[in-house]
Amino acid sequence: MADKTFKQEKVGCYLLETNKAQPFEPGKKPELKPEWDKDLCVRCALCYIYCPDAAISRQEDGYFSADADLCKGCGICHRECWFGAISMVKEG
Amino acid sequence: MDKFSLYVGQFLPFHEHFAPKGHRACQGCGVALAVRHVYKALEGLCKNIDAASWQIPWKHSVLAGADKAATIEPALLSMEKKQGMLYICFDNECVSGKIDKDALIKRQPAVALANDFTYIATACPSHPFDLIEKVQRAWNTSGNSYIHILCPCPIGWEFAYENTVRIGRMAVETKLFPLYEIAGGCYHITVEEPQPRPIADYIKKQKRFSHWKASQVEALQNELNDAYNQLKEKAVIAK
Fold first, then answer.
1. Domain B24-49+56-238 adopts which CATH fold?
2. Confidence band, pLDDT 50/70/90 cuts, at residue B109
3. How many domains does chain A have?
4. If you count residue pairs, one on A and one on B, with CB atoms under 8 Å apart, how many are there?
5. Interface membership of A41 toward B (CB under 8 Å)
6. pLDDT tens across B46-80, in order?
7. What pLDDT, on the 0 to 100 scale, is given for residue B184?
8. Residue of A50, A53, A45 whose CA lies nearest to A71
9. Subunit contact B33:A50, Cβ cutoff 8 A
10. Which of B14, B33, B36 sits opposite A58 (nearest CB)?
11. Hey, which residues does A17 pair with through a beta bridge?
12. ipTM for the complex?
């Protein structure tokens, strides 16, 4: 991708900064990321139902986790969890 | 059964058909959530098209000015010619620029009833199992069916992303958007709220109502009560 650049030199539509386009990766860098506390989680699957991005999936042990590529960090799972098992953590 | 209602999510299919590689909707999109629930409902009922990213046969159309009940009528009439059709309206109330109380109280189900739809229902993604049951019931009816889904939109309604489900639930709790179904002309209220919240709670949460005056809120509350009482009378007659 790096060697493909777009340059327009005619008067009218100047691109002042070129080489800024990046391939689309949804949720590449969400500000916040959900994390599950396994002591509080009762595996009720409410977070799974309310996720609009279909990012949350069930693990083999029955607990849930979010796919970092799909998650956009909206925080609905954190809001809707009855037991407060999900906390939104800043990705460092 | 109330004891186990929290765990009912365990019985849903965990295979994801809707957008397995992600989509480009905003953070906390209500429409994406509603579409996902519809997918959960239709899983196994219709043929999958594995080549398409949506994996379900669908036809998409944007109804300009769909907030008004009158403008939805020609669309419904054109749909009516095709027999055995499931028509789902994902309503995020963002088509008309100006928000008035006529746009908030939904008349479209009544229009659909006048157009000889056999199964009509309203649903909201904040009540997912209610929505899934209604879509499945609509799919199994022989005639045409119409489902009106209220999808909260964090960008258009101007509230925090994480409150999408909560705002939808509040619309049901304030009886602004009562969840009911009309099967063969008989009304049935599926989610009843014995102690409704005042509509001011719903108005306060969203910045799109920031220009509303107290008199407007009161007028909306009065109209809301009338509309709900009419609905309740129809439901009582059906019983």
1. Rossmann fold (3.40.50)
2. confident
3. 1
4. 79
5. no
6. 655 444 455 565 655 555 544 454 556 666 666 65
7. 83
8. A53
9. yes
10. B14
11. none
12. 0.81
